[in-house]
Amino acid sequence: FNSLNHDMTLAEFKFIWYMEYSHRMWGRVVGLAYILPAAYFWRRGWLSRPLKGCVLALCGLVCFQGLLGWYMVKSGLEEKPDSYDIPRVSQYRLAAHLGSALVLYSASLWTGLSLLLPRHKLPETHQLLRLRQYAHGTTALIFLTALSGAFVAGLDAGLVYNSFPKMGERWIPDDLLAFSPVLRNIFENPTTVQFDHRILGIASVTAVTALYLFSRKIPLPRRTRMAVTSLLAIACMQ
């Protein structure tokens, strides 16, 4: 209010406050929805030894995610007397919070599907190994693209250029490497952050498309084909 939103009304403040409050409450409900059944299953002896390790790891991730969320929000409430910029949370902490959420979600989904759907016994052919390696590489690229999106959000970098495929009148903006040292541009220069996110987004869609085309040449189970096709559809929609 002191730095930027001098005209904010009490009703407008309440809207933001309730959004934050509901997000925290929802996070706590998610934690309880995981921890309470896990404790019940553990007590009843329904978990195997390897599964107990997974349960403990996921429980740790749930708690870590909440702690990281508090640490992120704290950065937006700190006084910065030498800065006249718009108050915002640290883009580094925002990316860490999003990254840990993606890891938690993916690990939970992987664990659940591993229990619900037994693994296919497929011959370890050269093509199948290549497909698996390429799928893992594509996963890493998508994860990196999502993290770069957190930097875009944290720096409001999406407001710098709103034209595509060019950024303004140029393919490569003039201020791409305006900060010194050069490495700082990747994480703190809004123009560079948006440019990187665009490149990573295009690369992700290209990688998913290539993965789909490559999978068409290999005899795969129906479930796997559905997964690859769904991945392509979601990538195009995104």
Write the layout of secondary structure elements.
Layout: H1 10-43, H2 49-77, H3 91-116, H4 126-154, H5 182-188, H6 190-215, H7 222-237
Helix pairs in contact: 1-2, 2-3, 3-4, 4-6, 5-6, 6-7
List descriptors.
70% helix; mainly alpha; 7 helices; 238 residues; 2 domains
Describe this structure in words.
- Pfam families: COX15-CtaA.
- It is a multi-pass membrane protein.
- One of its GO terms (cellular component) is mitochondrial inner membrane.
- It is a single chain.
- This protein is mainly alpha-helical and 238 residues long.
- It has 2 domains: 18-117; 118-237, no CATH class.
- The chain has 7 helices and no strands.
- α1 (10-43) runs antiparallel to α2, α2 packs antiparallel against α3 (91-116) and α5 packs across α6.
- The two termini are 35 Å apart.
How do you describe this structure in short?
The chain is mainly alpha-helical. It has 7 helices and no strands.
Q: Which percent range describes the beta-strand content?
A: under 5%
Structural class: mainly alpha
Helix run count: 7
In total, the number of domains comes to 2
What is the β-strand count? 0
Main pleated-sheet profile:
none
Order of helices and strands: HHHHHHH
Uncertain residue segments: none
Name the average pLDDT. 91
Taken from the alpha-carbon principal axes, the silhouette is flat
Evaluate the radius of gyration.
22 Å
Q: Distance between termini?
A: 35 Å
Helix content: over 70%
